Amino acid sequence: MATQEEIARFGAVLGELHRLLRRRTVARADGEPLPEAQVEVLLLVRGAPGISGKEVARRLGTAPNTVSTLVRDLTDAGLLARDRDPADRRVVRLRITEAARARMADYEVHRVALLTEALAELDPPARAAVLAAAPHLDALLTALRVRA
Length: 148
Known about the structure:
Elements: H1 4-29, H2 36-47, E1 51-52, H3 53-60, H4 64-76, E2 80-84, E3 92-96, H5 98-120, H6 124-132, H7 134-147
Helix pairs in contact: 1-5, 2-4, 3-4
């Protein structure tokens, strides 16, 4: 079993990797960065089109009024669309717009390029080990989501 120190280092490395990759990708894409909370909403809505604002708040562990503000800002920016649920007009269903889809695709291209360049600097066994870890990191992500 891993020590507490090893687990803490793992978490710190993941956090720094995420922050650095995000900053460098945004700089490379030459775009105006979105706040992390807005990115989280877009990613969630992209993965679950038609999700309600209430469900977004629950899944992100965020207050509904915070999500309302994020949704309003993303809608004003043309990145999110709100539709009334035909079965219950009180419920708003969310979906990303084509502008958001294009922006996310552009971001993905730059992120993949950055990772490709960085991975090329690793020796082949290290590169293979990092890439082989992806399914295990996915499983870890799922385990963390379930616990939330």
